Amino acid sequence: MSRSSTRFDTKKVNSELVTLTYGALVAQMMKDLDNTDDVSKQLERLGYNMGIRLIEDFLAKTGTGRCLDLKDTADKIQTAFRMYLGVQPNVANWSAAGDEFSFILDTNPLTDLVELPDDLKSLKYCNIICGAIRGALEMVQLDVQSWIVQDQLKGDQNTEIRVKFIRRLEDAMPAGED
Amino acid sequence: MADETLFELLHSEIVNYALESNEIKYKESKDEDLSIIEYIGFSTGFRIIERLTKDMPRFKDELDTMKFICTDFWSAVYKKQIDNLRTNHQGVYVLQDNGFRFLTKLSNGKQYLEAAPRYVAFTCGIIRGSLANLNINCLVTAEVQNMPSCKFHIQVQRT
């Protein structure tokens, strides 16, 4: 009777589920590896694996074509952030050569409910996002590097994720295709 | 707010991670140690239930709690309700889900059946963790005979 009316906001639950599951995973890794550098590296790799598969979902859902230039790429990643994390980061700090840019997030759902203890200040908690960006872009023939410049968990105002274009990957296309 | 796809990918990466760390720990044995996955589920369940039930009235009894798990909780986490709940009224509950979310994309039948335990361990943990935070100590096991349906057996431990 009274309880049947309690419907949860499934979107919010799902988001918290991701946050909490990710937190539990990081905690488990910390226990297993006992070294923040190794954990950061693992998280990046994990994100890479997720990015490889996430890009297919993204392309299927949005139906976008190839990126024309890096500005276009940045815009599309911005869309992906909104789709998957529900946040709208700002694209900023373009380098003079136009091959580097940053995403600035004022809120980060991954770090909701999270607080880093002092002895883990070197842990790159959000490295999974960097990995996901790298993995996803590799699938569309873009080799990039990605790292965290600012982190709210470490007392910064925003979370800033830097992306640097390295090179375009060449596809070994069979003759007569594309 | 995160998308559902993200949760599914994260879940499969957890499975991946657990299998890899198994390989390092026990090179020889063929047994799969799924306790890492279960434990990650446990801590997740333990925390999420607190956030979900904080504005709710207290549950009447054990059965009431189980009903909550089968309906509201399950539809919040797995997008559908449990299809069948059975109990012997002595602390054993069987929850049956005919289209379990983590198995639907895996197979429809008996193919890959040997891999199924990896994909239900996390959920066993979530149930155990949630109930533990609601003051019910229990043992949760899963049984998969034909994917994508799955039965969760909950055995309440009484002292």
Automatic annotation (TrEMBL), chain A:
Its main location: endoplasmic reticulum. InterPro entries: Bet3, NO_sig/Golgi_transp_ligand-bd, TRAPP_component. Keywords: Endoplasmic reticulum, ER-Golgi transport, Golgi apparatus, Transport. GO terms for biological process: Golgi vesicle transport. It is found in: Endoplasmic reticulum; Golgi apparatus, cis-Golgi network. The keyword Transferase does not apply. It comes from the Eukaryota. GO terms for cellular component: endoplasmic reticulum; Golgi apparatus; TRAPP complex. CDD domains: TRAPPC3_bet3. PANTHER family: TRAFFICKING PROTEIN PARTICLE COMPLEX SUBUNIT 3. May play a role in vesicular transport from endoplasmic reticulum to Golgi. Homodimer. Belongs to the TRAPP small subunits family. BET3 subfamily. This is Trafficking protein particle complex subunit. It comes from Anoplophora glabripennis.
UniProtKB/TrEMBL annotation, chain B:
The keyword Endoplasmic reticulum applies. This is Trafficking protein particle complex subunit 6B. Keywords: Endoplasmic reticulum, Golgi apparatus, Neurogenesis. InterPro entries: NO_sig/Golgi_transp_ligand-bd, TRAPP_component, TRAPPC6/Trs33. It is found in: Endoplasmic reticulum; Golgi apparatus, cis-Golgi network. It holds the Pfam family TRAPP. Belongs to the TRAPP small subunits family. BET3 subfamily. Component of a transport protein particle (TRAPP) complex that may function in specific stages of inter-organelle traffic. Specifically involved in the early development of neural circuitry, likely by controlling the frequency and amplitude of intracellular calcium transients implicated in the regulation of neuron differentiation and survival. One of its GO terms (biological process) is nervous system development. CDD domains: TRAPPC6A_Trs33. GO terms for cellular component: cis-Golgi network; endoplasmic reticulum; trans-Golgi network; TRAPP complex.
